[in-house]
Amino acid sequence: MRRSAPAAPAAAALRARVYGAGPTGALAALALARSGWAVELWDPLPAAALLERSRAYALTHSSAELLQSLKLWQPLQPHLAPFRRLELCDQALQRRVAFRVGDLPRRSSAGPVDAVGWILQHRPLMALLLQELESQPGLRLHLADAAGPGAPEGVNLVVAADGHHSPCRRAAGIRHWHRPYRQGCLTVQVRLRGSQPDQAWELFRPEGPFAVLPLGDDAFQLVWSAPLPWLQQLEALEPAAFLDALSAALPEQLQAEVLLDRPRAFPVALDWAWPLQRKGVVLVGETAHRSHPVGGQGLNLCWRDVAVLQQLASRAAGGRLPLRLLPRRYAARRWLDIALVLLATDALVRLFSNRQPLLLPVRWLALALLGRFSWLRALSLSAMSDGPCRLRWP
Ligand SMILES: Cc1cc2nc3c(=O)[nH]c(=O)nc-3n(C[C@H](O)[C@H](O)[C@H](O)COP(=O)(O)OP(=O)(O)OC[C@H]3O[C@@H](n4cnc5c(N)ncnc54)[C@H](O)[C@@H]3O)c2cc1C
């Protein structure tokens, strides 16, 4: 399917080709077009397949700010489930810490402050992005269509957002470090009793972290990390047997009543591509990095790539940044945030996914300090929500 937008950009517009119309590529294409670039967006999947995934993303404040700046926040409002309390539980130690909206550091920007984070389902997000892409002047959308990787004549920048297997990254000769976790991840939506509708949970179990994310009313998205072969056995269970296994994993207070979709288990890995640019190609989203789902950092990190790309693209379009410097500036501004998030998520998994007697006192102390000092909760929330390179001091 080939669709073109109604109006053409100014003749002198810079040209970008974006590979991949997942949540990162679609947002990057929109951001570039709104910065005055002429953009082509390619994906081999048709629109129906792009919409189809049964997933929910935990959005942080950095993502909220980007969506606001692209005027997508208001149209997404009806689909956002805010959580105002995040309960961190170490199930081996039987200790808890609660993060509340009041723990967020004061914000000088105009970003929303009424929640610790928001849960957004994949379908309404992609439906809005595709609708905006179709009506965006200066943007040509090529879905269910394949283009060979690389930059044809006249294209000033190639944005590779074609996922973690990325043919585009391979064609640019960019190296890729891949380390699979022994843990996999199972996602499923359930109806749950025992939690407030605006409360999220991160349960640290010896087998792996387990996130319980509110979707509105009493529906919740579960992101359950544990050894992959075991999750694959769970995935194959009948609904009643699956709910029994789930009850055994959740704290007593939480009771799963009904499955709302089919449980799906998938492998989890730590991936990092280096360098983040080469020969006019910049890597964004999961093409550049992939982390463990603990702490719901993945898509937010992807979208911080887009936010930086948008700033630089807008400067280049305004003649305030020489085009040849854009890819290198992008890589220089992104590597630290990516490295810190990959390291932090990896460290969290290593520290909490066990019953090691030597680590239990460290965990006990960390949770005790978090519970005692509000400035420490504020700093941790800021690192999770704004990114470790944009820490806001309480
Ligand atoms: C099975 C699974 C379940 C997940 N569940 C959750 C979850 O519950 N919550 C959560 O927050 N995160 C989840 N994630 C992670 C989340 O999906 C990613 O963070 C997010 O999809 C990253 O978006 P992206 O656009 O960078 O990459 P992708 O979503 O992978 O998009 C890549 C796009 O590139 C396209 N493409 C591939 N080859 C080419 C080519 N040659 N040319 C052009 N385009 C191409 C693909 O068709 C695809 O549309 C999950 C990931 C997986 C794999």
Describe this protein with a few key phrases.
single chain; 394 residues; alpha+beta; FAD/NAD(P)-binding domain; 9-stranded mixed β-sheet; 12 helices; 19 strands; disordered N terminus
Describe this protein's structure:
- The protein has 394 residues and is of the alpha+beta class.
- The chain has a domain at 2-80 and 120-177 and 269-353: FAD/NAD(P)-binding domain.
- The chain contains twelve helices and 19 strands.
- The chain has helices at residues 23-34, 47-51, 61-69, 73-76, 122-135, 167-171, 228-235, 239-249, 298-317, 326-352, 360-372, 374-386, and strands at residues 2-4, 15-19, 38-43, 56-59, 80-83, 85-90, 95-100, 117-121, 139-143, 157-160, 175-193, 199-205, 208-216, 219-227, 255-259, 264-274, 277-278, 281-283, 289-290.
- Strands 6, 7, 11, 12, 13, 14, 15, 16 and 19 form a nine-stranded mixed β-sheet that branches. Strands 1-9-3-2-10-18-17 form a seven-stranded mixed β-sheet.
- The termini are far apart.
- The structure holds flavin-adenine dinucleotide.
- Residues 19-25, 42-45, 50, 55-58, 161-163, 167, 187, 223, 266, 285-286, 296, 298-299, 302 line the site of flavin-adenine dinucleotide (FAD).
CATH fold description of the domain at 2-80 and 120-177 and 269-353: FAD/NAD(P)-binding domain
CATH superfamily of the domain at 2-80 and 120-177 and 269-353, by name, is FAD/NAD(P)-binding domain
Note the overall shape. globular
DSSP strand content: 25-35%
Structural class: alpha+beta
Report on the biggest sheet.
Answer: 9 strands, mixed
Strand runs, count: 19
Helix content: 25-40%
- The pLDDT mean sits at 93
CATH architecture of the domain at 2-80 and 120-177 and 269-353: 3-Layer(bba) Sandwich
